[in-house]
Design brief:
138 residues; alpha/beta; Rossmann fold; four-stranded parallel β-sheet; 7 helices; 55% helix; globular
């Protein structure tokens, strides 16, 4: 199964947060992982804000190494136009709409969204997109 992983879920791989273990297990169990280009920015910012500088540096290095193994959707004109429509239809916030549009472009209903952001999950469900459940959040 392919998972589309947003920043809130990916960060749990590097920062110990509530339910991190469940998200890390979901990431490890995926056949493949996909995300959008802006995830690297969101994740790096969250990691650097959540950890002491030395730990953040190590985790940012790990993020960079892991990034090479992700399928990445570019935020091109088509993706942005789709995000606009999704935001207008669902009320999704801008960055969430970009994630949802990227997910759709990378497999739509054959890809599941892994997010720790309940507002984004609600918007995805409203748009008919499948949302993965971690064992502790099901």
């Amino acid at each position: 199964m392919r998972l589309y992983v947003d920043s809130s879920a990916l960060v749990k791989r590097y920062v110990d947060e509530p339910d991190s273990d469940a998200y890390v297990a979901a990431l490890a169990g995926a056949g493949s992982l996909a995300t959008a280009r802006h995830t690297i920015i969101e994740a790096a910012r969250a990691i650097s804000r959540s950890l002491e500088p030395a730990d953040a540096g190590r985790m940012l290095d790990q993020l960079d190494a892991d990034w090479a193994h992700l399928e990445v959707c570019e935020l091109d004109a088509t993706t942005c136009a789709l995000a606009r429509e999704m935001a207008l239809e669902s009320g999704a916030r801008t960055l969430d709409a970009l994630h949802l549009a990227a997910m759709w472009r990378m497999g739509g209903d054959e890809t599941r969204l892994l997010t720790a952001d309940e507002r984004q999950a609600r918007a995805a469900r409203q748009l008919g997109l499948p949302v993965a459940q971690t064992s502790s959040l099901a």
